[in-house]
Write a structure and sequence with these properties.
heterodimer; A: alpha+beta; seven-stranded mixed β-barrel; B: 238 residues; four-stranded antiparallel β-sheet; elongated
Chain lengths: 306, 238
């Protein structure tokens, strides 16, 4: 029988992979792990393919008992990780023995933590992914007493892997989010300074579909509504109240509000870690600078694989 | 000219190919035709190609391509398409049962007062002809043409947090069909009880932009017949 673990205690934890890629033209958002870098790093640390299914824990604690020997890695926002009664480090591979209890608690500075399991989690993909989609009602939260099975690993893995401390992202408020111009940027020329100077606050009415930001409304810009167009991931729409919403991975496709800027690909992971009440400031980047930032992150993950 | 487009920056990992800000049927047809061309061109690194009214959103994977490479590849593909001029896609006709009013008719009273029409007259307006599907919307839903009333229908000032699954709604002069329950600022007139599409390992949606939809009225009692049925395709003489 395959190795498995039993969930002891959970509030908001799900099984995620990289999501349903390339279906936005049907109104189906990708969803998937909100902090892609932490999720992929976890898989690399345990020798998995980068899109193996992992546990994503949001905000609250999570406890499981290993029913077999297994190798895990815990990544994401800083949290306390305890195996039986020993505190262990995140961002490294850890050997767990059958019968041991693993606790993740006190998630701080960010919102989400990932547990990668060597071999990956067995799941039933729908439209190519096991990720939760709250609009289409696909997937569900993990429940206490649920048994979660792991695949047999497909390759040999002999080394302990530890992330270089310089490569671990900085999590926490105030978030400086880098953006490039959006498709309606010309409508916002008179208010661009206000947008970039403002310190926004993350509203509690935020989720994987969109992060709502509170702050002084922008006014005097020239377009309240635009003809509906396809929204790209990370688009920052300015809604009629003059405040921004960052469209995120659960997005349904179209939008009719003007888009001032788009979060750069390298900073989407930070968006997936913002907590209600956190401060956010936007920083304007050129496309060249943004692509360089992305390359740096890509190189970090490549180094983990060798 | 309908074929004139601009490639507008959209962050570092996407572009918006725009044919203008004003909706015309010709521009819309060009948008969907060219989106099809781009999807079939299999440009390396392209992740999403999403045509709507007058624009195509195209996103790409920065681990294998760049904005410059994508811009060149897209321009080449669209130029080749202009030269080739192959006729446009199929047209299928579908009829959808509509339970007008009732528990999903959240805005029927508003519309009746706003348009000075009886609910029956409004229902008749929705059911009397085929309208084209313009674009997919939330979770396999779509936006289509609708009845032309004397006044354009305003959205809600504050969107509802949740509107009924299967809902049919109107805003401006467009109609939205929403298979799932979702937040919405549109005006709801009722719902369709059908199974819109099949979803398991793959997505099988019977309809797409360019097809036509006509509603026919049914009662809440009759709705049970339609729960497991997909949209009814009809033969139409053109």
């Amino acid at each position: 029988m395959n190795a498995f673990f039993t969930v002891q205690s959970t509030m908001l934890a799900t099984i995620q992979d990289k999501g349903r890629i390339g279906m936005i033209q049907y109104g189906i958002g990708p969803n998937g792990a909100a902090d892609t870098f932490a999720y992929e790093a976890g898989n690399a640390l345990v020798g998995n393919m980068r899109d193996a299914a992992s546990v994503e824990i949001t905000a609250f604690g999570f406890v499981f008992i290993a029913n077999a020997d297994m190798i895990i890695a815990v990544t994401g926002a800083p949290a306390t990780v305890i195996i039986d009664s020993d505190i262990v480090n995140m961002w490294q591979s850890i050997v767990i023995k059958a019968g041991q209890t693993v606790q993740v608690k006190k998630i701080q500075k960010g919102l989400r933590v990932y547990i990668a399991f060597r071999g990956g989690i067995v799941s039933e993909p729908i439209l190519g992914s096991c990720s939760v989609d709250t609009i289409g009602n696909l997937g569900s939260k993990l429940k206490a007493k649920q048994k979660v099975f792991l695949h047999e690993p497909g390759n040999t893995f002999t080394e302990d892997k530890v992330m270089n401390i310089r490569d671990i992202p900085m999590y926490g408020s105030p978030w400086k989010i880098r953006v490039c111009d959006g498709c309606n940027v010309s409508d916002f020329i008179t208010v661009a300074n206000d947008f970039y100077q403002q310190i926004y606050r993350v509203s509690p009415q935020s989720n994987i579909i969109g992060i709502r930001l509170e702050g002084k409304p922008l006014n005097g810009y020239t377009a309240q509504e635009v003809i509906s167009h396809g929204v790209c991931l990370g688009s920052i729409q300015i809604v009629p109240t003059g405040t921004p919403i960052i469209t995120f991975k659960g997005r349904g496709g179209t939008a009719g509000y003007p888009i001032i800027a788009v979060v750069i690909a390298a900073d989407l992971d930070a968006v997936g870690q913002m907590r209600p009440g956190d401060s956010v400031q936007f920083v304007r980047y050129t496309v060249e600078e943004a692509q360089q930032a992305f390359s740096q992150k890509k190189n970090i993950l490549q180094r983990l694989l060798v | 000219m309908a074929d004139t487009y601009q490639i507008v920056p959209y962050g570092d990992a996407a572009i918006l190919i725009t044919y203008g800000e004003t909706f015309t049927i010709n521009i819309w047809k060009t948008v969907h035709y060219n989106a099809n061309i781009l999807a079939k061109a299999h440009i390396p690194g392209v992740i999403e190609v999403f045509p709507t009214y007058t624009t195509i959103m195209l996103s790409f994977d920065l681990t294998i391509t760049s904005l410059d490479k994508i811009t060149v590849a897209v321009t080449d593909a669209l130029t080749a398409a202009q030269v080739a001029k192959v006729p446009l896609q199929r047209k299928k006709y579908f009829q959808l049962p509509l339970v007008f009013g009732g528990k999903a008719g959240l805005d029927v009273a508003f519309l009746s007062a706003y348009l000075n029409m009886s609910p029956q007259e409004i229902c008749n307006s929705f059911c009397n002809e085929y309208h084209p599907i313009f674009t997919f919307a939330t979770f396999g839903g779509f936006l289509m043409g609708g009845p032309t009333f004397e006044k354009s229908i305003p959205r809600l000032a504050s969107p509802r947090l949740s509107a009924p699954a299967g809902g049919i709604a109107i805003a401006g002069n467009k109609v939205a069909v929403m298979p799932v329950s979702a937040p919405s600022g549109w005006r709801y007139i009722g719902y369709s009880p059908i199974k819109f599409f099949t979803i398991d390992r793959t997505l099988q949606i019977p309809y797409r932009p360019g097809d036509y939809v006509k509603f026919f009225p049914i009662t809440e009692e009759e709705s049970k017949i339609y729960h497991s049925q997909l949209p009814i395709e009809t033969e139409v003489e053109t």
